[in-house]
Each structure stands twice: as C-alpha cells, then as structure tokens.
Amino acid sequence: MGLEISPEPATAKSATNTIKVSLTGSEETALTMLYARALDSSQTNPILGDKWAPEIVSKLNYDFPSKTGVGCMVSAEIAARSGNLDGMTEGFLALHAGEPVTVVHLACGLDTRCLRVKHGPEVRWVDVDLPGVVHLRERVSPSCNVGGDYTLLAGSAADVGGWIDRIPADRPTLVIFEGLTMYLNETQGRHLFEGIVSRFGGKRGVEKQNQIICDALGSIIVRLQGWVHSVENSGALLDWAMDDPEMLCREWCDERLELVEHMLAVEMPGVERYPWAFRAAMAIGAWVPYVRSHSKLLRYRF
Ligand SMILES: C[S@@+](CC[C@H](N)C(=O)[O-])C[C@H]1O[C@@H](n2cnc3c(N)ncnc32)[C@H](O)[C@@H]1O
C-alpha cells in the first residue's frame, strides 16, 4: 500500500494563495459535501460540527455558494447523514474494541471522517478516491494519521481489482462509502459489492464479522437529477438507484450479504434539528411513497 499521486494535477495555486480547483464530474461533488459540512459547522448549534471542513474550504479557490447551491437545508441533511454514518462506523469499532480491524473509507472525497471517528493504533484506516480528489486531498487535508496506520490510495470503485488487493484481508473489515453508489451504474455496483465480499468475507456459514455501510438514493432522485444543483453544475450523472436494498442479499454476493440496518433519511436521527420548513417537508415526505425512500443509509454484514 502507499500514496498514489494523480498524473494530472487538478489544482494550481491562485494569486490569493488559495488552491484553484478544477475537478469536474463526480469528483467535483466532493466539494459540495465539504461545503455542506463547513456550513453546518458555522451554525450556532451544528448537527455534525466538523471543525476541519471550514479549514479545508478556506484553503480552496472555488465559488462554493454558487457552484454547489448548498444552503442551510441541504447542509443540515448532509450533516445528519454524515453524523449517522460516523455513528455506524463507531458501532463497528465498538463491536471489535481492542481488536485489530480495517476501515476502508471508499470515495472519501475531502471528508475527515478519519478524524471525526476517534480510533487508536489497532485500526488500519484506508481512504480511497479517484486520482484528482486524492491529489487535492493530499494538499489540503489535515493529517489523518491519528492512529498511526493510515493510507490514502487512488483507485476507482468501478475497477475493484485495481486497489482492493493492496489492502490486506487479515482482520474484520468495514468498507464505508457515502455519496458513491449513485455515481456508479448497477453493473459497477454489483462488481463493487461482490469484490468487497469476496476479498474480505469469510467462508459461507462463518460468523459475519465484516460490514459494508453506505448510503443510496431511490429512483425518484435519479429521475429528478436535473433539479440537483451540484450534480447539474458538475456534469456528474446519477445512475444507480437502490429501491430494494435487500435485492443485493438475495441475488448478488452468493447470498453471503445480510442487510442489518435500513435507515430512511426522512426519519434518521438529526431530522428533528433541521430548519422548521425542511422538517415539515420531511414529515410530509415520510408519508409519500417514493419520496419516503428518496435517500437511505444501509448497513450490511458479510
Ligand atoms: C458526493 S462526493 C462524496 C465524497 C465524500 N464521501 C463525502 O461525503 O464528502 C462523491 C465522491 O465519490 C468519488 N467517486 C465517484 N466515482 C468514484 C469511483 N468510481 N471510485 C472512487 N470514488 C469515486 C468522487 O471522486 C467524490 O469524492
């Protein structure tokens, strides 16, 4: 394992000494998530309170408000989602307290989950993203080597063989990805899930010690993607909608995957702290088929 550097730097220093960003497509959407967390942090009573996000934003020359279109509602939803995914990660670590484990944070973007989720030297933490994001991350992220076993890898979720074999399969492993599944197509998604299960999973029937934690969209958002400002602006394509997260267990991964948590975004902890108009929209949405499952958090065991 080791650090890989983008052959095509997507950044350059600007006159103001901030770093000019020229990411496009799904890589650019990492900036939306970063800004959403920074905006949440600037609130008096933040939902996530990621103190590193504003620091990273301040290093970048990028018109965050107009390019991302993120306001307080989207910021609140992203903060709540990230907070819940942090909680699930902490749950995995608590389950294996004191044991050597691996956490693979795939499509990590500019997210500092590795800093928010406290962990010690028994945790091997691997962040993975596409080369352009990895290159930017190396330049602007605070050091994530808190536990002493940290690696940043460039690789594509659509090419599992390219990076997964570089991560030792010698311990219980959590693979977590936030904001990724929708940028893959279903075939790539299948290869990713099957690749993870076959690399890190034990034999069929052996106790399931490994987890995949991710979020997913319902097809309503994929159909309405023209309305999602940051997707439209970056030219990214939302493709894979997971309307039936159990399907993966029934039809993929040789039935070795088990869905153990399915949390709808309209009902997740944190919603109660949204601005009131957004809270009301969520409460109504929770009664409307398709809208109800427009976004979800999933935890699988294998
Ligand atoms: C919406 S952002 C989420 C970033 C990060 N998870 C966060 O929450 O801040 C989407 C991320 O997925 C990454 N991504 C998209 N396609 C990918 C692929 N095939 N392999 C690895 N990462 C990918 C992008 O580079 C980007 O960092």
TrEMBL record:
Keywords: Methyltransferase, Transferase
Organism lineage string: Eukaryota, Fungi, Dikarya, Ascomycota, Pezizomycotina
Pfam families named in the record: LCM
Gene3D superfamilies in alphabetical order: Vaccinia Virus protein VP39 (3.40.50.150)
Molecular function in Gene Ontology: methyltransferase activity
Keyword Transcription: no
GO aspect biological process, one term: methylation
Protein name, UniProt field: S-adenosyl-L-methionine-dependent methyltransferase
